[in-house]
Specification:
With 269 residues, this protein is of the alpha/beta class. It contains six helices and twelve strands. A hairpin with a 2-residue loop joins strand 8 (193-197) and strand 9 (200-204).
Length: 269
């Protein structure tokens, strides 16, 4: 039995490509996924108006959805609110902001927030992973496909137009590998990609905004077969989504390890 996952990201309501975002709803419904994963930056500046539009758009997807915040989902221009209550509006309009999960037959998907409202480094928009929270994720029974989602790519993608610079990203990838996670989904870079990561695969969705970085708007259609993942980027032409880059990724099935990879347990910011 195959599974289908639609992976969308970086819609940036406030600068969304309005027609692409609208057409994506119908395209996703036609794909009939078992799960929709949205990896952050639903808004441009974290304004209430943008969140209301994002919440309406998510509701219209009409499928079980797992969503996690991105760095733009904080009050971008309100430094006090961004520092003290960075994800209050996300929780009000969208749902849990730290960890979340969705279980479907044969599928266990979990998300962890990699975005921060402030950090002790010049570029606060970069990613960070709380390893303690990651280790605490309950993946449910062994046997289901395990999928992890966050906004920033844990490991840098070759040729990506921007860097996620995720603190503790490699350690997080090793923890996920030990847990038997096969797919790690992210956004942030606004271009689709597929790459091996610690025994599984990292997949990146494009953007549905006008903030493109040299490539058109896009999202991913993922079909899970017993022996392989079939990944296709649905690329926006200005009028419709057409098949774009495709990847066939052989599954490397294995049982989760018993031991936990090394990592600094105090690294929780």
């Amino acid at each position: 039995m195959s599974l289908r996952i639609a992976h969308l990201s970086d819609v940036h309501f406030g600068r969304e490509d309005r027609l692409a975002a609208e057409r994506a709803l119908g395209d996703v419904r036609d794909f009939a996924p078992d799960l929709v994963v949205v990896t952050g930056d639903l808004t441009l500046s974290g304004r209430s108006r943008e969140f209301r539009e994002a919440a309406d758009w998510l509701a219209r997807l009409g499928r079980p959805t797992l969503a996690t915040p991105g760095n733009h989902d904080t009050p971008y221009w309100n430094l006090i609110a961004r520092s003290l209550r960075p994800f209050a509006r996300w929780r009000r309009y969208i749902g849990p902001s730290d960890t979340s999960g969705v279980d479907r037959p044969g599928l266990a998907a979990r998300a962890l927030n990699s975005a921060r409202g402030a950090q002790a480094r010049p570029d606060w928009s970069k990613g960070a992973i709380n390893l303690r929270a990651l280790r605490g994720i309950d993946w449910g029974p062994v046997g289901a496909l395990r999928v992890f989602a966050c906004h920033h790519p844990l490991v840098e993608s070759e040729g990506a137009p921007v860097s996620g610079a995720v603190r503790r990203g490699q350690a997080a990838a090793e923890i996920l590998a030990a847990a038997g996670v096969e797919l790690v989904l992210s956004g942030h870079v606004h271009t689709p990609f597929a790459a091996p990561i610690c025994g599984g695969y990292a997949l990146g969705a494009g953007t549905l905004s006008t903030r493109t970085r040299g490539e058109p708007a896009s999202f991913l259609r993922i079909t899970v077969e017993p022996q392989a993942f079939e990944v296709e980027a649905a690329v926006w032409t200005g009028e419709a989504f057409q098949p774009g880059p495709c990847w066939t990724l052989a599954r490397r099935l294995r049982a989760p390890a018993v031991s936990t990879p090394l990592g600094d347990p105090s690294s929780v910011d």
